[in-house]
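Example for tutorial group B:
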C-alpha cells in the first residue's frame, strides 16, 4: 500500500486558510458528529491531503478515547497539525461559530415553514449524512484495510458494535483492534505512516493536562460561593469534562442540570434540542442556546458565549495534552502494528455507525434510498462537491411537499 505522507512544507499552512475551510465545514456539515468525520475526511484527507488516512484515523482514535465532542476535537487537532496553535484556534472558532449563531435563528425560522416542508428539509440533511459517511467508510476501507488481517479486524469490530449499543464497547473494540494489530499486522505499516507531528513538547502537554484538572477541581469550589456566571461556567465545564460519546450523550446531562436545577422549563429546553438536530456543526453548540436563556447580570449573548466556551474547553485541553505522548508512542515499532489494528477497528466503528444510527433512522423508504444512490453518484462517480449532494437531497425531499 502506498500512503500519502505530507512533507513538513505541505503540512504547515496558515491560520487564514484553516479559518476559511472550517467556516465552510461549519456551514455545511449536517448530520451530527459521525457525519462530521465524513466531511472532514472528504475535505482534508481526500481533497486537500493535509494528513494521511493513517494519521486521520489515529487522531480520531485519540478523540474517541477522551471525553468531549469528538468531531470538534478532531477538527481542532487537524488545524493544529496544519497551522499550529493559531490554526487550531481558527478551526475551532470557524467550525463552531456558524451553528452557535444559527441555532436560535433557525429554531425561530422553522415554525414559519409548513410542518411538511420543515420536516422534509431536516430529513434531507439526514440523507446527506448517509452518503457522506458511506463515502468516508469506503475510502478508509481501501486505504487502511488493504489485506485480509485488517479487513477481518474491521468486520469483527463492526459486528461487535452492532450487537450492543453500550458506549464502553467502542473503547473495547479499539483495545481489541490494538491487540489484534500486534499479533496479526506486524510489518504491514511503516513508522513514517504513523507520524503525528506537533510543535510542542511533553512538558506543554503536561501543563495543559494540569490546567484541565485545576479547572475541574477548582471551579466547583469557586462556584459554590457564586450563584451567577461562575455557576454557569462550572455547570458546562463539568458536562464537557465528564461526558463520553459526544453531543447526544451530553444532552440528558444538560437537561437534568438546567431543567431540574430550575434554570429554565422543559419546553424551552426541548425547543432548543429540536433546533440542534437541524443545524450544521457540533451538537455542543446547544450550550449557547441554553446559556442565552439562563438569567445572570450579563447580557444573554455574553452568557451564551461563556457557556459555549466552558463546554468545549475541557475536551480541547485534553486532546492537546495527549498529542505529544501519542507522538512518541506511535514511533515505536510495536506500536505501529497496534496502530494498524486500531485503524482497522476505526473503519469497523464507522461502518457500524453508518448502519445504526445513521442509516436506520434516515432511510425510511425506497424513495429515500434512491435519493441517496444519486447523491452517492454525485460524489463518487461524478466527483462533485458535497454541496451538490446537499442540494440534490434537499430538492428531492422537498419535491413531494410541493406537489
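The residue assignment follows.
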Amino acid at each position: 500500500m502506498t500512503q500519502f505522507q505530507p512533507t513538513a512544507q505541505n503540512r504547515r499552512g496558515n491560520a487564514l486558510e484553516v479559518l476559511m475551510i472550517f467556516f465552510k465545514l461549519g456551514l455545511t456539515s449536517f448530520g451530527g458528529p459521525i457525519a462530521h468525520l465524513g466531511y472532514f475526511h472528504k475535505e482534508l484527507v481526500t481533497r486537500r491531503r493535509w494528513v494521511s488516512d493513517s494519521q486521520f484515523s489515529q487522531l480520531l482514535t485519540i478523540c474517541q478515547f477522551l471525553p468531549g465532542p469528538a468531531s470538534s476535537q478532531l477538527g481542532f487537532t487537524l488545524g493544529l497539525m496544519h497551522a499550529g496553535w493559531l490554526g487550531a484556534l481558527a478551526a475551532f472558532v470557524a467550525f463552531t461559530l456558524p451553528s452557535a449563531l444559527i441555532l436560535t435563528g433557525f429554531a425561530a425560522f422553522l415554525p414559519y415553514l409548513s410542518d411538511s416542508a420543515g420536516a422534509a428539509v431536516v430529513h434531507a440533511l439526514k440523507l446527506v449524512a448517509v452518503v457522506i459517511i458511506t463515502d468516508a467508510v469506503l475510502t478508509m476501507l481501501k486505504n487502511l484495510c488493504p489485506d485480509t488481517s485488517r479487513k477481518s479486524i474491521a468486520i469483527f469490530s463492526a459486528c461487535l458494535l452492532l450487537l450492543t449499543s453500550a458506549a464502553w464497547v467502542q473503547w473495547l473494540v479499539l483495545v481489541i483492534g490494538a491487540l489484534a494489530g500486534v499479533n496479526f499486522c506486524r510489518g504491514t505499516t511503516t513508522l513514517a505512516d504513523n507520524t503525528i507531528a506537533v510543535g510542542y513538547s511533553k512538558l506543554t502537554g503536561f501543563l495543559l493536562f494540569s490546567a484541565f484538572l485545576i479547572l475541574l477541581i477548582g471551579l466547583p469550589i469557586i462556584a459554590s460561593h457564586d450563584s451567577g456566571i461562575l455557576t454557569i461556567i462550572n455547570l458546562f465545564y463539568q458536562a464537557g469534562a465528564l461526558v463520553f460519546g459526544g453531543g447526544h450523550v451530553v444532552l440528558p446531562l444538560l437537561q437534568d442540570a438546567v431543567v431540574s436545577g430550575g434554570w429554565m422549563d422543559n419546553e424551552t429546553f426541548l425547543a432548543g434540542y429540536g433546533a440542534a438536530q437541524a443545524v450544521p456543526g457540533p451538537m455542543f453548540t446547544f450550550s449557547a442556546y441554553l446559556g442565552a436563556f439562563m438569567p445572570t447580570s450579563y447580557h444573554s449573548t455574553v452568557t451564551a458565549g461563556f457557556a459555549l466556551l466552558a463546554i468545549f474547553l475541557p475536551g480541547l485541553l485534553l486532546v492537546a495534552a495527549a498529542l505529544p505522548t501519542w507522538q512518541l508512542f506511535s514511533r515505536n515499532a510495536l506500536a505501529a502494528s497496534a496502530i494498524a489494528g486500531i485503524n482497522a477497528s476505526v473503519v469497523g466503528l464507522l461502518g457500524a455507525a453508518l448502519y445504526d444510527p445513521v442509516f436506520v433512522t434516515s432511510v425510511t423508504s425506497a424513495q429515500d434510498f434512491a435519493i441517496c444512490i444519486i447523491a452517492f453518484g454525485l460524489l463518487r462517480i461524478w466527483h462533485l462537491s458535497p454541496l451538490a449532494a446537499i442540494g440534490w437531497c434537499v430538492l428531492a425531499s422537498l419535491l413531494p411537499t410541493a406537489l
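The chain has 17 helices and no strands. Compare this with the pattern of hydrophobic and polar residues in the output above.
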